[in-house]
Amino acid sequence: MFAKIDHGPLMDRVYRHQRHFYDATRKYYLLGRDPMIAGLMPPANGSILEIGCGTGRNLVMAGAAYPTTKLYGIDISNEMLTTARKKVTAAGLGERTELAYADAAKFDPSALFGRARFDRIFISYAVSMIPQWESVMREAVNHLAPGGQLHIVDFGDLKDLPGAAKAALYKWLEWYHVTPRNNLFAVAQDIAAATGAHAEAQRLYRGFAWISIISRPG
């Protein structure tokens, strides 16, 4: 029987039907995902965890890019996990991929996967949908191995987009319970400073997408 998590039922309602065509539509505006995956560059035989793995699309991409890595994913939507398991299996990655239902803000990877640390953790277009996103980032950094990195890609501040386009996009995102985190880079800097890590900021596509990287020392 699945555990009860408050945010989970909302995400199940949002994605119960969308999961079937999610990847086909999101490729047009979830920009920056592939550059983020290309920048992971985990060590050989390393480990990659995706927080909010959704349909499994990104894990499949990461698995193809880094064929010696072990892949892990958690999500708060059972609906999405159902699709992710099918996608991972279809890609031939089932033997080196583990997926679990969990709340990103308070998950225990040792209980879920039998390991406490990961070489790379990434979050793709999920911090804008997680109410306690700052806690999720801090929790993720706590689960990085020495020399590990947290990579986040999400909507940016849209600063350089035309005003009308920016307003329309914000309204559209609101319908889907999405809130761009315009202080993402500042929060990443604060977390890095508090943990002895280093934060890097990348702005893509006129501010449409941001990539934040927090690197722990080796």
Q: Which bin fits the share of residues in helices?
A: 25-40%
Largest sheet: 7 strands, mixed
CATH superfamily: Vaccinia Virus protein VP39
Discrete helix count: 9
Domain Methyltransferase: 48-148
GO molecular function: methyltransferase activity
Keywords: Methyltransferase, Transferase
Protein name: SAM-dependent methyltransferase
Describe this structure as you would to a colleague.
This is SAM-dependent methyltransferase. This protein has 218 residues and is α/β, with parallel strands linked by helices. The protein has one domain: Rossmann fold (3-Layer(aba) Sandwich). It has nine helices and seven strands. α7 (133-142) links the parallel β4 (118-124) and β5 (144-155). The radius of gyration is 16 Å and the shape is globular.
Topology:
Layout: H1 7-18, H2 22-26, H3 33-38, E1 47-51, H4 57-65, E2 70-75, H5 78-90, E3 97-101, H6 109-113, E4 118-124, H7 133-142, E5 144-155, H8 163-175, H9 184-195, E6 198-204, E7 209-215
Parallel strand pairs: 1-2, 1-4, 2-3, 4-5
Antiparallel strand pairs: 5-7, 6-7
Helix pairs in contact: 7-9
Keywords: Methyltransferase, Transferase
InterPro entries: Methyltransf_25, SAM-dependent_MTases_sf
Protein name: SAM-dependent methyltransferase
Features:
single chain, seven-stranded mixed β-sheet, Rossmann fold, 218 residues, alpha/beta, 22% strand, disordered N terminus
Short account of what is shown:
The protein is an alpha/beta fold.
